[in-house]
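Quick one: structure tokens for this chain, please?
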Amino acid sequence: MSRLISRCRCAALCAAVLAAAPAAFAESPARQASNFASDSGNIIYLAAAVGLPLLSDGKHGTNHALRAADAIGTSVLLSEGFKNLFHEKRPDSNAHDSFPSGHATAAFAAATVESDLHPHQAALWFTGATLISYSRIRLHRHYGRDVIAGALLGYGTARLELSTPRGLILSPLIQPESRGFGVQMTLPLH
């Protein structure tokens, strides 16, 4: 219970930082860092969330990687659904797909799963998720509310993922009690 309270406090602190983020317009070092965090850094971060368990978690590596992929994938699908539902205009264009931030959603889903699997790394994962999310505001791609909603969506989806024994979307593949994985198919009976 204290680990959950600690993670909630960390997530609340991240949300406060994100809400206070100023936009960066000039080609400054801060903007360059934000561009990296939003693009290549985001890809590296999400790949690490899925790939590192394969390298470091031994016999549980495959299931841990699948858990991370499931949380990220499910949260991004939900984020895209909400974007289509809300049609919020982006601050830097006429596109109407701002709410919630998909980058924040995926990053916080990854941070939540990885911090649950590796509690001693929680601060690193949530710092990375916060920097990626902060970059979206700095680049004027999202409003603060978009990023906070995405962070909450990613966090909540990952907590739901971790509360189920076999995952959300990838449940046929996730088998926590075995070393292998497989695909399950059912045929309708007429």
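Residues 39 and 132 are 9 Å apart (CA to CA).
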